[in-house]
């Protein structure tokens, strides 16, 4: 327990930087709000414009992911205070996370390749992709259409 | 105190935490790192499945209802949920800051706001789940067709309910932890201890829950 209180004193949060710290919190809150609004605007645009799957749509999705990472940086760096911790400590948390670079690339590429192989060699898989599904009208009054949910859920093609 | 601040500190000479962080806080960070891998694995499994599938339902067609307004409002409800969680994260930061300044009343005030935010978020999620369930969506049942009207698979709902459910469970435990913190603060536990480091650890957990939502929100509702 002695260690605990000693560390606390070293961190030394004097009263002069208390108001400054509060200002920083509101600044980061503003940034997070703006970034979220931009993300939503892009998402809404993708919906309204009815974009086809392709390069442009993928680019917008990539942009959303970049904004997501930016938000994550603000939350971890400022709200969770990691930016103000000792660099050595921050590195012990951040460096293992670089595993995600491999993790994401390898698995998404694998999924993509699997889909490509199945589309090429598995006729059943391709046919399934062109089957139309009975479009259910989504109404606000729920309950009455409850049973339609089980009709065309893809069970018969499993 | 002054000497450590001005002279060159030998962090690794022993007798102190070389990271200048209290033990429990270090462990909280490492727990959160491992939790990040758990959520990462879930989200990457979702991504891999999506890449291995030809079509996928459009989130804007699935999540377009707002309580009391009916359907036709894509992104609106989830924006509200996101905003609630961000605001509760802000009040948590303010609680942590108040704790560092040993202001008990402020800690209590901001903790209560954070708990309210968490409960609001959970209520929103409960409403959304109930609404989707009424539309016929659940684990193993997907009433929503793909973007282009083709037959979809149950992977969509399975991943949605599993991952948002796992996140919702984190929010729930975060709310419980914050309630425990509130009770301890009211009982003067931290005043007697001389510091509010426990609030900082609970704060880290709460921010992490917000952080995960940033990812879940993007992966399920936006792209």
TrEMBL record, chain A:
Membrane topology: Multi-pass membrane protein
Superkingdom to which the source organism belongs: Bacteria
InterPro entries: Cyt_c_oxidase_su4_prok
Transmembrane residue ranges: 28-47, 59-80, 86-109
Keyword Transmembrane helix in record: yes
GO cellular component: plasma membrane
Principal location class: membrane
A Pfam family assignment: COX4_pro
Residue ranges of the region described as Disordered: 132-158
Keywords for the protein's UniProt record, in alphabetical order: Cell membrane, Membrane, Transmembrane, Transmembrane helix
Subcellular localization: Cell membrane
UniProt protein name: Cytochrome c oxidase subunit IV
Source organism: Filimonas zeae
From TrEMBL, chain B:
InterPro entries per UniProt: Cyt_c/ubiquinol_Oxase_su3, Cyt_c_oxidase-like_su3, Cyt_c_oxidase_su3-like_sf, Cyt_c_oxidase_su3_a-hlx
Biological process according to GO: aerobic electron transport chain
Keyword Transmembrane attributed: yes
Transmembrane regions: 26-46, 73-96, 108-130, 159-183, 204-222
One Pfam assignment: COX3
Domain Heme-copper oxidase subunit III family profile: start-end pairs: 1-223
Keywords per UniProt: Cell membrane, Membrane, Transmembrane, Transmembrane helix
Chief subcellular location: membrane
Membrane topology: Multi-pass membrane protein
GO MF assignments: cytochrome-c oxidase activity
Keyword Protein biosynthesis: no
Localization per Swiss-Prot or TrEMBL: Cell membrane
Entry's Gene Ontology cellular component terms: plasma membrane
Designated name of the protein: Bb3-type cytochrome oxidase subunit IV
Source organism per UniProt: Filimonas zeae
